[in-house]
Known about the structure:
By secondary structure, this protein is an all-alpha fold. It has one domain (2-69). The chain has helices at residues 2-9, 16-30, 42-53, 59-69. Helix 1 packs antiparallel against helix 2.
Amino acid sequence: MIFYDIIRLHPFLDGNKRTAFHTMLYFLELNDIKFKYTHRDEIKIEKMLNRIARKIETIKEVEKWIERGIR
């Protein structure tokens, strides 16, 4: 999953989590899928991205998180 890999592999000097998140949103949009979140969810999203970067979340847990966001 490219979203997960961009965060974990850290290919850029800066902006890996932002790039990964927006890449995921763009991919979902291309497939007519909306990731539903509000301004209030931004802190939760940031926490999840940080947990992925710190290798706390597994890819399966991230998949479940994304699935919850698209419902």
